[in-house]
Amino acid sequence: MKQSHLAARTDKNAPHDAESVNAELLTRAGFVKKEMAGVYSFLPLGFRVLRKIEQIIREEMNAVGAQEGLMPVLTPRENWVKTGRATVDIGYTPTENTILSWSHEEMVTPIAKDLVRSYRDLPLCLYHIQAKFRNEPRAKSGLLRGREFIMKDAYSFHANQEDFEAYYEQMAHAYFRVFERCGLRAYRIQAGGGDFTDKFSDEFSVIAKCGEDTMIFCEKCGFAQNTEVAGTLTKGSDCPKCSAKLDETKCIEVGNIFDLGTKFSEAFDFRFADAEGKNQPVIMGCYGIGVSRLVGTIVEASSDENGMIWPHSVAPFHLHILSLKEDETAEKIVADLEQEGYEVLFDERNESPGKKFADSDLFGIPMRVVVSKRSLEQDSVEVKIRATGETKLVLMSELAQTVEDFFASKK
Ligand code: ATP
Ligand code: MG
Fold first, then answer.
1. pLDDT score for 230
2. How far apart are CA 411 and CA 409, in angstroms?
3. Residue 155 near residue 103 (C-beta atoms within 8 A)
4. Position in ligand 1 atom list of the atom nearest CA 151
5. CA of 296, closest atom in ligand 1
6. For ligand 1, atom 8, which residue shows the shortest CA distance?
7. How high does pLDDT run on average in the chain?
């Protein structure tokens, strides 16, 4: 991809209304555009990251047997009246007969009801990656809290509690894999059921200075509790699991999984015939990940004074090739790397080296390759690793191997 064709314009200065690191950097780099409080457009660079995160989530959802579909955001009000959630404050109401979805239990339960007749049709898990609308009073942290945002929400249906609980644990593991693949360490926190249910839920949270939540956690074994429910546990207490010292931190909730019991199946009279032919209510779980919030969280977790630092798994491109008036050689390098399957952003713009370097640091693409007259005199190019700042001259004949080794070590 030629950078002169890229739909992105970078800005040296922070937007006047940037309230958070992720909003500032993503906006300055031209990854997103703020439309109004809590509402963002994804521009091509940001969208590439979003798509990669979605793909990781997809692979891990499919691996636990969840099946992907897509439910609408404009939804019939009568479904929500059934569950008593038509008037929850967080929802927008576009007309008296419709509700812009802020969650999708009211859509998925009737869909599953059409599919499931007997215990033989269970378990079933459906998910989609779709916009949600929430009338958030404090939409002031960029992609972390949108009024329109993108969520992966999965819903599972079970014949009995035991089956549900086993699946819930499989999902929890899938969640850990998703966050790890996004370059994040998530902590699992047992919490209340929130708006969804009076049963239990588990939140998955990532350490971040700007986080709105606070947790007591054990870095060693991963034990974590919300400070509101931590009881006597405080910073410095012994971890109840491994007896290392506990610490306290601000954190961002990136995912949440819930035991829904029979709340929604009862509202829609969704029952199945068990092995004895007896009618039983279906037991449900739901599982959310803040997909667009993850984009912001990764920026909060990984940036420096010069810009963003993307983990290779979700970076908008793998390699950023900068040509300092050596377009012909650079073009050949780009073609070779693309041939090898790498995603390459090629800066062939007629800009000063300083501007090119600054934009490259801001974008945070994992590996930068500068092709200049000076380096070519030594048959070399200059390679910089964004995350470590490590810079070295690499012989042209060894570039392919250097790139391969770098990305292989990140697998
Ligand atoms: P929060 O406590 O942050 O308001 P929530 O508990 O209300 O979130 P859930 O209903 O559990 O959110 O939604 C599932 C996931 O969707 C959350 O874990 C979070 O990652 C994401 N999410 C929720 N609200 C927003 C929002 N306004 N903007 C971006 N992502 C969100
Ligand atoms: Mg939650």
1. 67
2. 6
3. no
4. 16
5. 29
6. 253
7. 94
User: Average pLDDT of 392-399?
Assistant: 98
Residue 394: band (very low, low, confident or very high) from pLDDT cuts 50, 70, 90: very high
What pLDDT score does 119 carry?
96
Q: Give residue 187 CA to ligand 1 midpoint distance, Å.
A: 16
Residues with CB under 6 A from ligand 1: 134, 136, 145-146, 149, 151, 194, 253-256, 288, 290, 292-293
Q: In whole angstroms, what is the distance from residue 45 CA to residue 38 CA?
A: 19
pLDDT digits (tens, 9 = 90+) for 20-60: 999 999 999 999 989 888 889 898 899 999 999 999 999 99
pLDDT of residue 192: 66
Report yes or no: 109 and 6 within 8 Å, Cβ to Cβ.
Answer: no
Smallest-distance ligand from the CA of 142 = 1
> Could you report the per-residue pLDDT of 342-364, keeping only the tens digit for each?
999 999 999 999 999 999 999 99
Query: Which is it for strands 319-323 and 367-371: parallel, antiparallel or unpaired?
Result: parallel
pLDDT of residue 193: 60
Beta bridge partners of 346: 2, 321
Question: Which atom of ligand 1 lies nearest, measured to the CA of 255?
Answer: 18
Calpha distance 210→344 (Å, rounded): 32
Angle at 276 between CA 273 and CA 281, to 5 degrees: 35
pLDDT tens digit sequence for 96-109: 888 999 999 999 99
* Ligand 1 probe mutation, 36, 202, 213, 256, most atoms within 8 A of CB: 256
Ligand found nearest the CA of 184? 1
CA–centroid distance, residue 114 to ligand 1 (Å): 29
Look up residue 98 and give its amino acid. T
**Nearest-5° Cα angle at 242, 239 to 248:** 30
CA atoms 264, 152, 66, 61: torsion sign: negative
Q: What is the 3-state secondary structure (H, E, C) of 257-316?
A: EEEEECHHHHHCCCEEECCCCCEEECEEEEEEEEHHHHHHHHHHHCEECCEECCCCCCCC
pLDDT tens-digit map of 194-213: 555 567 899 999 999 999 99
Report which protein residue has its CA nearest ligand 1's atom 25.
Answer: 145
